[in-house]
Design a protein that fits this description.
Helices cover 5% and strands 56% of the residues.
């Protein structure tokens, strides 16, 4: 702690500026019709063009010279707001913008700080990207950005700059979720109907973010229409959704939305029609809720709710036997928020939250045979829960110096492996591991000149469990230099730590993600990341571009030992894990977008190289990460054909994933006393991940038709085609003596030698969906 105090004192003393007489203005910017906060609205002095942007709460704070007489506020798709400041001193403003013309807001961006290692998506952008089922998916849209890749085809899991899926921090209104996918990663849990803003940070995190190594996905929910009752309903190939919102009174608003699949009934009916001796069922639901109370202009209290569950089951039966399994998993989140503007210089946001993730795997066998009367069942459980208290403070000293500081504390309870087999056998060591993770942070945001912006911060994390404790310091530095011609150069460094880890099996449709904490005998995972970036606008602000280079080194990573893929039913589950891994990743990223005109879109490209190294894997030698894709390219073209018709086309290309090839074969003599006469063929494998699958590419198209119902309500039809030219992309490779996943036949004389085959899941998939607003 002495070292931490020295660092904090140094930052405060070295950065404390002279405080001059200025006017401090703060406030919230909202939509005039719905009352929703506008995130990223530009608030600036029209004379000097110096200004700021609203945060996730629609809040801004700035210090101005006393002679400033007005403020301008701009936001894409809204008319410019103008606020007179004659004879106004320190004050708090409530500003409403009217939806209308799209003005040239890019003209005032040269003096504002531009964020690097970060991308932002609006709700409108999410709606137009083609997706399976004709309904937008937040995480699949983020996968189109440079430096962000998917785990497998169709998966919503994010791999950011060489990181693993568990190294991403997912926040809903600043509250984290542990698991963010439905359908084995096929669909994300984030309902686009309730989203106001999405942003992803790929590196250079501000000190307020911690606990993960690779990215922060920050989603802000809408508050609900404050003026009138509103709602929407939709139906598509996968299911239906319903959203309701409106005011309870002039100070309270609500927003509720739910989604539910149809797949349970469809799969069940298909099994019965085909006369099969099995019944397959799968489905999911999720519910989002938010109630906001604004007793006055300075205070806002919110209650948030998220519930979501998946269930996947197969039931096998004949006249005498019955067998099956049920795999369930899901999230629960509840939080309360108190946001208060203390004065024109400072604000505070307090959050109390509870989140839980749990999964279960039940299997059973029943027999009515006279020769076999033994019934069998097994139950496997795994869960993690989190109770957190968080307080974030913001204080503006003057026009070029802001301070953000805060405290957070999270009590987590882990149950990695609870297993029960048959009624007469006791549960195997349902071990509960508790841990307390607390952190404090300080950010110094300075802009002493018109060409320099910096955020210099420190985060201190303390972790305590029954048999382990640790303190970790995480310095963060982000410096931007404005260049002539609307260009900015950026340098950043960050150090991060992670005390909660997820282990999972790749290529497995069933959910088997298990969270475990840092324990005795292992260290927290950590990462150091360096980044250099450039941003600019050109052709009269018609185009914007971004180039980033990064290097990241990760230490004390965790994975399964060779030969293991789950923790199920083993009291010695720690012995299945390999600790102390090292990961390295470096790459270059390019993003080019056209933001004006009837034809808009973007081009994204990234090159990366990612490796892993563990002492007991691959002979201790470095090997390619399982999800290393050197080249990733996407191009999206958005064409507005008319006020009612919008066309979108997307093309994606990625290098193939690595796999471990067989380099030889041998034969094991058959020593059994059965009538089987042939020997068994066994493959000899080469260096881990030393070969690569075929490259992945596909084209998606969509057409959006907006119209009115006979009663004058807005309606939208979405027609989309996933994988237009039906490319058979490899999901994974496997060795067998026949091109199917049937590994029970080893008769070489009958089936021949084992060969390499490819499994593909997603051919051309047309979809249609319908949405009506009321």
């Amino acid at each position: 702690m002495t070292r931490l105090r020295h660092i904090l004192c140094f930052l405060m003393l070295s950065l404390s500026p002279f405080v001059s007489a200025q006017v401090h203005i703060s406030g919230i910017v909202r939509d005039s019709e719905s009352g929703e906060v506008l995130i990223g609205a530009n608030v600036f002095d029209p004379g000097s063009l110096n200004g700021t942007s609203t945060d996730n709460n629609g809040y801004f704070s700035m210090a101005l010279k006393e002679e400033i007489d007005s403020l301008w506020i701009t936001y894409v798709g809204y008319t410019t707001g103008k606020v007179s400041l004659f004879s106004v001193k320190d004050t708090i403003l409530n500003i409403s913008l009217i939806s209308g013309s799209n003005l040239e807001e890019v003209r005032v961006t040269a003096r504002r700080k531009r964020t690097f290692n970060q991308s932002t998506l609006s709700n409108e952008q999410l709606m137009y990207i083609p997706s399976i089922g004709g309904q937008p998916d937040v995480l699949k849209t983020l996968q189109l950005l440079p430096g962000v890749q998917s785990q497998n085809e169709g998966s919503s899991n994010l791999l950011v700059r060489g990181g693993s899926p568990d190294q991403n921090l997912f926040l809903i209104d600043n509250v984290s979720l542990f698991y963010v996918n439905h359908l084995g990663g096929f669909v994300s849990v984030f309902n686009p109907e309730v989203i106001n803003d999405v942003r992803i940070l790929k590196g250079g995190f501000p000190a307020k973010y911690g606990g993960k190594l690779s990215s922060v996905v920050d989603l802000t929910m809408r508050e609900g229409n404050a003026k009138e009752f509103d709602g929407s309903a939709g139906i598509g190939v996968l299911g239906a959704h319903l959203t309701l919102e409106g005011p309870i009174n002039d100070k309270v608003t609500y927003l509720f939305s739910g989604r539910k699949t149809f797949t349970e009934g469809l799969l069940g009916i298909a099994s019965l029609i085909q006369g099969e001796d099995y019944l397959v069922m799968y489905g999911f639901y999720d519910v989002n809720g938010k109630v906001t109370w604004r007793p006055d202009a300075k205070n806002s209290l919110q209650a948030n709710l998220y519930l979501g569950d998946d269930a996947w089951s197969i039931r096998l039966f004949d006249r005498e036997d019955e067998a099956g399994f049920i795999n369930k998993w899901g999230n629960m989140m509840f939080s309360t928020h108190w946001k208060r503007i203390l004065n024109s210089k400072s604000s505070v946001n307090n959050i109390l939250s509870y989140t839980r993730y749990r999964m279960r795997d039940d299997r059973y066998f029943k027999s009515d045979r006279t020769t076999d009367t033994t019934d069998y069942f097994s139950n496997y459980r795994s869960s993690v829960s989190d109770v957190s208290l968080k307080s974030d403070w913001r204080y503006q000293i003057n026009s070029w110096y802001d301070i953000d500081a805060g405290l957070t504390s999270s009590f987590r309870s882990f149950v990695p492996n609870e297993f029960l087999e048959n009624e007469n056998e006791p549960a195997s060591n349902a071990e509960v591991i508790n841990g307390l993770e607390s952190a404090m942070y300080l950010e110094n945001k300075i802009s002493p000149t018109s060409w320099l912006n910096a955020n210099i911060g420190i985060r201190a994390t303390n972790y305590i469990s029954s048999n382990y404790s640790d303190v970790f310091l995480e310095p963060r530095i982000d410096i931007s230099f404005s260049l002539p011609g609307s260009q900015v150069l950026n340098l950043s460094y960050m150090k991060g730590s992670q005390y909660s880890h997820m282990v999972f099996s790749s290529g497995n449709f069933l959910n088997n993600e298990v969270w475990i904490p840092t324990m005795e005998g292992m260290k927290p995972a950590s990462a150091d990341q360096y980044a250099l970036g450039w941003k600019g606008q050109f052709s009269h602000h018609m185009f914007s571009g971004e180039v980033n280079f990064y290097y990241k080194k990760m230490e004390d990573l965790l994975t399964f030992k060779e030969g293991f893929s789950n923790l199920r039913g083993d009291v010695l589950w720690r012995n299945k894990l390999e600790f102390g891994g090292i990961g390295k990743s470096y790459g270059a990223e390019l993003f080019l977008s056209k933001e004006k005109g009837k034809l808009t879109g973007f081009l994204s490209y990234s090159y990366s190289h990612t490796t892993r190294q563990f002492d007991q894997i691959n002979g201790g030698n470095e090997y390619l990460f399982e999800y290393d894709r050197p080249h990733s390219f996407s191009i999206d073209i958005h064409r507005k054909l008319s006020n009612k018709l919008v066309f979108n086309v997307l093309w994606v290309y990625q290098s193939g994933l690595p796999y471990t090839p067989a380099v030889g074969r041998t034969y094991i003599p058959n020593t059994s006393y059965s009538e089987i006469s042939y020997d068994f063929e066994t493959l000899i494998y080469g260096e881990r991940n030393s070969s690569r699958m075929l490259p992945y590419h596909r084209m998606d198209v969509s057409l959006y038709l907006k119209s009115k119902t006979v009663k004058g309500r807005n309606e939208t039809w979405t027609f989309s085609i996933y994988n237009l030219y039906s490319r058979e992309n490899p999901y994974f490779y496997f060795y067998n003596n026949q091109p199917r996943l049937d590994f029970g036949s080893y008769d070489i004389e009958r089936y021949g030698f084992m060969k390499l085959y490819q499994l593909s899941y997603f051919p051309i998939i047309p979809s249609v969906s319908y949405k009506v607003e009321f």
